[in-house]
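Human: I'm a chemist; would you kindly supply sequence and C-alpha cells for a protein?

Assistant:
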Amino acid sequence: MFPTEAKLREQLDTLQEENRQLREALAPDNVSIPAAWRLTPSEQRVFRCLMTQEIVSYDLLMMALYGDRPNDPPASNTIKVIACKMRAKLKAHGVVIRTVWGHGYILQNRHAYRNNGRAAA
C-alpha cells in the first residue's frame, strides 16, 4: 500500500524541520560575530560551527552550509575557499583557523572568543 500525498507531505515537512534543527545545532545563531570582521553569511555559519566543536569536519561544514539544498551541491573545494577567505579576513583580529589534515578545521583558542555564548570582538 502506498502512502497518500498528504502523508508524504507530512513526512517531508517533518524531515525538513529536523534538517533545520540539525543545521541550527551545528551553527547556532546565538554566537554573535563582530561586524568589523566583515564575514559573509556563509563565513559566519562556518565560524559558528567552529565555535561549537573542537574539530569540525568537512562533511559537517557541508551539512551546515548546504544541508537545505540537496539538489544544488557546491563545488568540491568550496569549504577550502571559504576557510582561506576567512583566514585572510580574521588574521587582523587575531582569529586563527587551523587545518587538521584528514579531520577538518579547528578554531584556535575558540574558548577565548566566548563571552556568555557570544564571540568577542
The chain has a mean pLDDT of 83.
